[in-house]
Amino acid sequence: MAGHNHGHTPAAWTGVTITFIGFCVSGAFTVLANPLGFWAGIVIIALGGVVGMAMRAAGLGMPKAQTHPRPTPQPRPEAQTQQ
């Protein structure tokens, strides 16, 4: 996986960091038995996904995989006429 450079972009790091902060906020308010704070954390988690996708759309994420043209088939030696 390390050879693919998966997730090593500003968009990925920012989205994951915001989501992690939302997870911590939601967890803390769960322990404190505060439903409003819990839902605020859930909103922050969703915001992390939105920010990550927006940054990816702005060009700060991994480029989309480009399809490579198929190579033209080479004639087989059996198909060649003998001279």
What does this structure look like?
By secondary structure, the protein is mostly helical. It is built from two helices and no strands. The protein has helices spanning 10-31, 35-60. The mean pLDDT is 83.
Percentage of residues in strands: under 5%
Number of helices: 2
| Run of helices and strands | HH
- How far the N terminus sits from the C terminus, by CA atoms, comes to 52 Å
Structural class: mainly alpha
| Strand segment count | 0
Radius of gyration: 24 Å
Provide the descriptors you would attach to this structure in a database record.
single chain; 83 residues; mainly alpha; 0% strand; rod-shaped
Provide a quick synopsis of the model.
Helix content is 58%, strand content 0%. It contains two helices and no strands.
Write the SSE topology.
Blueprint: H1 10-31, H2 35-60
